[in-house]
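thought: user wants a sequence for this fold. calling inverse folding tool.
action: design(structure=
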């Protein structure tokens, strides 16, 4: 096969391996270049081993009975350049390696009539990109709306400090609704999401509405509110991450 610097078709294949349900899942993302400005995607996402737990346990972990997804369609045009740039900047291992846990991330690449299975030297950036593509499919298929995140430094009665965001993965667009729909650079928005989801949101600690007690609260897109405060016996680095998240979000209020 020619040196790996472009593709006609790529298939991203991932399997979590034997982690407990409802988290264990696998997906295939098939992306085809139909023309220089036209890329299609076919997603097959499947959660497995859920017959081992109850529906209540699935819901308690923030999942539903309809988490599987199959969808085919066209990607927005901006995705073509993003994929090509990512592909060209990646260092590849032509001989895939496995860590023995059952967890896998592989890619099958077709180019000029030839195909081979390869693996990024560092899989994490491609796994994150795959998650963005999955969220893009959720938006395009209307399975989910763009991610809506709200931060309030106050209470249900006092929301003088508020940052209200939408994140569209399909169009790589971040909008700060609470500031006259100001747009934020997508890379800045991605870093912001890393901060936001670096915090562990515990369902049992959530609120249906913002409490009356003044504090720092966030609704990270699941319809519930969480107080941004260290849990009992939290380690020092965890406390610092929460403080940094609050400081960052207050900067958008």
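)
observation: tool returned 253 residues.
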């Amino acid at each position: 096969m020619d040196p790996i610097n472009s593709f006609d078709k790529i298939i991203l294949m991932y399997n979590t391996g034997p982690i407990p349900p409802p988290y264990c899942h696998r997906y295939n993302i098939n992306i085809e270049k139909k023309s220089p400005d036209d890329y299609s995607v076919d997603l097959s996402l499947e959660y497995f081993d859920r017959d081992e737990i109850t529906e209540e346990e699935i819901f308690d972990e923030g999942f539903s009975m309809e988490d599987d997804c199959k969808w085919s369609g066209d990607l927005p045009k901006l995705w073509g350049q993003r994929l090509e740039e990512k592909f060209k900047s990646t260092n590849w291992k032509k001989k895939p390696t496995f860590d023995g846990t059952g967890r896998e991330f592989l890619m099958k690449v077709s180019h000029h009539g030839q195909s081979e299975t390869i693996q990024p030297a560092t899989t994490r950036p491609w796994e994150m990109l795959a998650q963005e593509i999955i969220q893009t499919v959720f938006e395009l298929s209307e399975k989910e709306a763009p991610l809506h995140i709200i931060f309030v430094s106050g209470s249900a009665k006092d929301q003088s400090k508020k940052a209200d965001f939408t994140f569209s993965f399909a169009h790589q667009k971040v909008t700060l609704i609470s500031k006259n729909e100001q747009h934020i650079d997508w890379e800045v928005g991605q870093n912001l999401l890393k901060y936001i989801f670096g915090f562990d949101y515990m369902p049992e600690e959530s609120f249906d509405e913002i409490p009356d007690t003044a504090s720092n609260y966030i609704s990270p897109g699941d319809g519930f509110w969480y107080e941004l405060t260290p849990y009992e016996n939290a380690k020092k680095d965890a406390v610092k991450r929460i403080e940094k998240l609050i400081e960052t979000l207050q900067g958008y209020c």
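thought: summarizing for user.
answer: Here is the designed sequence. Helices lie at 55-60, 78-88, 124-140, 186-196, 236-250.
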